[in-house]
Write a structure and sequence with these properties.
The protein is α/β, with parallel strands linked by helices. Helix content is about 45%, strand content about 10%. The chain starts with a helix and ends with a helix. Bound molecules: ligand KET.
């Protein structure tokens, strides 16, 4: 039973509601009313409409019961339904604190209303990603001359994406075997973890024999770096990661998101267009003892400049002296020299010294498995026992992040690397890919040298290795490359030679010369 005044108020409430359908009455009705869909309403609305058409007190009484019954339990309090009462206004006062709610007074009745303001109003627009955002801009360009040299992804001479033959063969094997899609263990596919560590350290390496490597399959290089960053954050609180200047654009994001402090060490010297080796050594020396030193295992991104074997030895010396922990990012094994073993020599040199180290691996580039997200994090420890504990913690980090990794890419790698015939075929294909990049590098250099009337020395392009060339073009010059020449590249002056064809070298040379000499 409800009092007469309550029924009066309910009648008025329903009447007002029907005239204010663009508001969302807090108590009983959550109506997402938008401009394009102004009449979308809760099932309770028709009842309320009926209520205004036949505004009898009996109907209001029935309505009140219905509304009461329809309310979720926690909202179905007599006090709250006591419209216009002090209980209600105290509730409304609470609502006022919510920045997305506004209250409105209709004479005797206060209504809590949600205006058409998003709960995500405070979310600002993120800038496009400096690397992957370039591909988005490229897709939107209709020019026939356009060239995507932004992302490091291998293309054929026809500038088409390339699926390696060994990958197709490995996929066929998977189909023939009728393999299932059950969840993988958190650490990933055992066969993958075995071959990936062997590919990196070399089968028979003592670190593997002595079970001192904790290997966990990751979501490609990025995901593997992120797992390691989380491990650092948990077990080395306050430890710094030293990052080369410049570096791959995502490194800083990864450590920022993992709340791991980082600082930069000198790496690139624009004057010599080479390695600032002395600067690098002194910055590593100056860092607090026990820092992590992030090193590009081969084919440094974006500079394409790697230390010589002698320089690697000296880097290892100073890291050991300072009790730092080397942390390798190996995203281009096989792409720097064309040889998988040669490209892992930096990592193996550190492992052979008995140092503890971390290595993130990626199969995006060398097996062309970009979208399969396959890679691994390897932590070399001084004992098998420590490795087992580290592995258990990596799994603990992975479980709430993504539970367990995808199986498809892991099987491809396991099939290719684990099968001697496919493994050899892969090496041949990789040499072909690396060879094509070397050819365009040479042709670009030739074209630049022939066309540049100012006689600039472009030979640094030939000294750089891997997928990229660091052109030395400034931000505005890089923008000119895109705006005037439709050449898409990152704003740090990096071009991906893997996205260039011999046929486009002359055009690219024209664009570079124009941007370099005519834009400042
Ligand atoms: N490390 C380095 C040095 C690197 O260049 C990349 C990718 C990665 C790790 C990670 O790749 P993943 O696909 O997560 O295994 N670099 C290219 C693509 C990208 O930016 O994501 C690039 O620089 O174009």
């Amino acid at each position: 039973m409800y009092s007469a005044s309550a029924i009066d108020k309910a009648t008025e409430f329903c009447f007002l509601l029907c005239h204010e359908t663009s508001y969302n009455y807090k108590y009983s009705i959550r109506v997402p009313v938008t401009e394009s869909n102004p009449h979308h309403c809760d099932p309770i609305i028709p009842l309320l409409l009926a209520m205004t058409i036949i505004p009898s007190k009996m109907m209001a009484s029935t309505m009140l019961s219905l509304v009461s019954a329809a309310l979720p339990l926690q909202e179905n309090h007599k006090g709250k339904m006591n419209l216009g009462s002090s209980d209600c206004s105290s509730f409304l006062r609470k609502e006022k604190r919510n920045p997305f709610m506004k209250t409105k007074s209709f004479g005797r009745i206060n209504m809590a209303i949600a205006v058409n303001t998003s709960r995500f109003e405070g979310v600002t627009m993120a800038p496009p990603d400096p690397i992957l955002g370039v591909s988005e801009a490229f897709r939107a360009d209709n020019s026939e001359m356009k060239l995507n040299l932004g992302v490091g992804a291998y293309r054929t001479e026809e500038l088409q994406p390339y699926v390696l033959n060994v990958v197709k063969k490995a996929e066929n094997l998977m189909l023939e075997r009728g393999e299932n899609k059950e969840y993988l263990p958190i650490e990933g596919l055992a066969a993958f973890n075995k071959v990936t560590a062997e590919l990196l350290f070399g089968a028979g390496n003592p670190v593997i024999e002595q079970q001192r490597v904790a290997t966990v399959q990751g979501l490609s290089g990025t995901g593997s770096l992120r797992l390691a960053a989380a491990l650092i954050e948990r077990y080395f609180p306050g430890a710094k990661v030293l990052i080369s200047s410049p570096t791959w654009g995502n490194h800083k994001n990864i450590f920022n998101d993992a709340r791991v402090p980082w600082s930069e060490y000198r790496y690139y010297d624009p004057k010599t267009v080479g390695l600032d080796f002395d600067g690098m050594i002194s910055d590593i020396k100056a860092a607090p003892e026990g820092s992590f030193v992030l090193l590009h295992g081969c084919a440094h991104n974006p500079t394409g400049i790697d230390p010589t074997p002698e320089q690697w030895e000296k880097i290892a010396d100073v890291i050991q002296e300072k009790n730092h922990i080397p942390f390798f990012d190996v995203a281009y094994q096989g792409f720097a020299s064309g040889s998988l073993d040669a490209d892992a020599s930096s990592v193996r040199l550190f492992a052979a010294r008995g140092m503890e180290l971390l290595v993130a691996q990626s199969y995006s580039k060398n097996l062309g498995l970009y979208a399969e997200r396959i890679g691994a994090i390897n932590v070399v420890c001084s004992s098998a026992d420590a490795a087992a504990r580290v592995k258990s913690q990596l799994k603990r980090i992975a479980r709430p992040m993504y539970s367990n990794p995808p199986i498809h890419g892991a099987r491809i790698v396991a099939n290719v690397v684990g099968d001697p015939a496919l493994f050899n075929e892969w090496k041949e294909e990789m040499e072909l890919m690396a060879g094509r990049i070397k050819n365009v590098r040479q042709k670009l250099f030739d074209s630049l040298s022939a066309k540049d009337k100012c006689g600039k020395d472009w030979s640094f392009i030939l000294k750089q290795i891997g997928m990229f060339s660091f052109t030395g073009l400034s931000k505005v010059q890089s923008e000119n490359m895109t705006n005037k020449w439709h050449v898409y590249m990152t704003k740090d002056g990096r071009i991906s030679l893997a996205g260039l064809s011999l046929a486009k070298c002359e055009y690219l040379a024209d664009a570079i010369i124009d941007s370099f000499h005519c834009v400042s």
